[in-house]
């Protein structure tokens, strides 16, 4: 468990959430006609950033993520199937209050937002190694090209998440989670991650963040 957010921070979020569900609609122009989604977006933004462009390396950006993917993740949090400690801490409580229509509206909203632009401080050699794994995989290790499923620009589609511009720290952590039982719907990723070394994970994560 990472102590990224203090108890007082979490208390503030919980308070916001209650206020969001009980209070008046704050803005009328978001999330289609779904009132709960419109209110919820203010709470999501506390952690995931304005428009779903996260500023925190440990919190994923949601902007530009295919709607089907986001929808599935929110349902996996709600049913507590996606169960890494961070999910349990941050997403179980939030998602428990969302019905299917609200989840759909939130997912549609984030799919329409402008994605986080690529950014990096990584060394060119690391980025080159990451690009090679992304485009070609590691044939000798049975690791397929990431681009084959996530798209040539890592833009994602349907159930395949967008990875371009995503925070490297978050990507790296997920690559490790796929080797565990904590993310059962990541089963397609199990084979891909089984034979990647931690160093290679770091490189591909750095490259994806830079895209
Ligand atoms: C208190 C902070 C916090 C709040 C509030 C919050 N989230 Fe999250 N969310 C997180 C963290 C942290 C993660 C990543 C957990 C991990 O490392 O697996 C996450 C993960 C997610 C994911 C998975 C992303 C992916 O790429 O797989 C989705 C989707 C998501 N949140 C949507 C939402 C929505 C929609 C809301 C508002 C209804 C919301 N979150 C509110 C902290 C928060
Ligand atoms: C056979 C198709 C396939 C290949 C190849 C593949 N992925 Fe994935 N990946 C998926 C699917 C499907 C998911 C969504 C799993 C879920 O719904 O929980 C995913 C999820 C992810 C996630 C989690 C994203 C998030 O927002 O939480 C990361 C990170 C990721 N893949 C990185 C990679 C990397 C790096 C490679 C190449 C080494 C790769 N993937 C190759 C299918 C694939």
Question: How would you describe this structure to a colleague?
Answer:
Mean pLDDT is 88; it is low at 23-29. The two termini are 29 Å apart. The protein is an all-alpha fold and 211 residues long. 55% of the residues lie in helices and 0% in strands. α2 (35-48) packs across α6 and α3 runs antiparallel to α6 (100-112). The chain has two domains: 7-112, Cytochrome c-like domain (Cytochrome Bc1 Complex, Chain D, domain 2, Orthogonal Bundle); 124-210, Cytochrome c-like domain (Cytochrome Bc1 Complex, Chain D, domain 2, Orthogonal Bundle), CATH 1.10.760. The structure holds heme C (2 copies). One heme C binds at residues 60, 72, 133, 143-144, 146, 148-150, 159-161, 163, 171, 174-175, 183, 185-186, 188-189, 192, 204.
* Secondary-structure element pattern, one letter each: HHHHHHHHHHH
Classification by helices and strands: mainly alpha
- The low-confidence runs, each spanning 5 or more residues with pLDDT under 50, are 23-29
Total helices: the number is: 11
Strand content: under 5%
What's the story with the biggest beta sheet? none
Head-to-tail CA distance between termini: 29 Å
How does CATH name the architecture of the largest domain? Orthogonal Bundle
Work out the oligomeric state of the chains in this entry.
single chain
Basic shape: globular
- Reading off the top of the CATH hierarchy, the class of the largest domain is best stated as Mainly Alpha
* Helix content, binned percent: 40-55%
CATH superfamily of the largest domain: Cytochrome c-like domain
Mean pLDDT: 88
How many domains make up the 3D coordinates?
2
Bound molecules: heme C
And the CATH topology of the largest domain? Cytochrome Bc1 Complex, Chain D, domain 2
Q: Radius of gyration over alpha carbons?
A: 17 Å
**Beta strands, count:** 0
